[in-house]
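User: Can you help me understand a structure? I only have the sequence.
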Amino acid sequence: MNEELNKIKIAIIDDKIDDANTAIETIELEAKQYNYSVESLIVTLNRDEDDKDINKISEIIDKLRVHFEDCDYGILIIDFKLSTDIARYGSSLALRIREEKEGAENSFLNKLAIIGISSSQPTEEGRTQLREMEFIQIFDRNELIRDAEAFFKLAEGYSFIVNSVSEELSIELLCTILNTREISELLWNTIPEDFKNKWDPDTPHLFSRWLWVEFLCTPGFLLSKIYASTLLGITEEAFEKITDRIEEAKYDGVFKLNSRPLWWKEKLIKLVSQIVEPEELMPIWKRGRKLSNEFSENDYAKCAITDNYDVKLVPAYKGYDRQKLVPITYTFTEEAKNESISLGFDAERIWNGESE
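Assistant: Let's start by predicting it. Here is the structure, written out as tokens:
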């Protein structure tokens, strides 16, 4: 018996119909893999104001209202590089649409996760942090197949947040959203104060972006595999062998991705300290190496500069190009310049050129 697919509605606003069709075809192709069936709408904006295509916000809203009628949740995709009379950048259009959330007739907009799509690099002209804020995330249209899970999980998570918080964020609601029994005082204090006040229709968007971009992607409270394995003093390959032993520390909250697993740092340290109880005091990176009797020196994380493994290591970049994180002796690293980091999070580190 075939499992029933979850239905999701998607709309894309683009100034190039071929690009829009390609994106929708890719999304629909990947949908079944993640148990979804997609109902899509393409809204084209033309660069010629005399063209008969849609060029008014009210007309766009009307089309979206019809498409998303009786929809529990959906995704609105906007091309970041729009070049029309109505908006030079997709971020401008996203902002104007978000401003239309007030009022009962446009309440359907509250259910839509607004994301961007772009075929250019994050350093492209006009790609500023301020403009990126208008989207929960900007996806590379050339990488939609790779990012398909993130695409659908973002919609699920956004809907969960909208339906979970009706007034303001509390510790109890945050625990529900992150699917954890308790949170630290440090984490609660890290949450921007605006999210602890009464929510307006746009707060779910801003909170979702904060969770997606900062909380999930910045090491500190949560760790990716390279950060978790280096913390435990072992390679990523060795880490894969002991994931069952540290299952309790795995993140299972909103926006969880199977393709990019995360672990709670505090829970991981506590759990490993309970599993491995040496007779004398031992740093966490030495305890981690005792999680399996089959571990050998080949399973130990080594400094990418010196090959030394009997030392505290941290994930860092060997150069400012930031191509790949590798374990490097802590004292051989420094915080990346011009990094603005919030309380509780760890700044990216780079090799400082030292080797002894």
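Now, to help you interpret it: DSSP finds twelve helices and eleven strands in the chain. The chain has a mean pLDDT of 88. Let me know which part you'd like to focus on.
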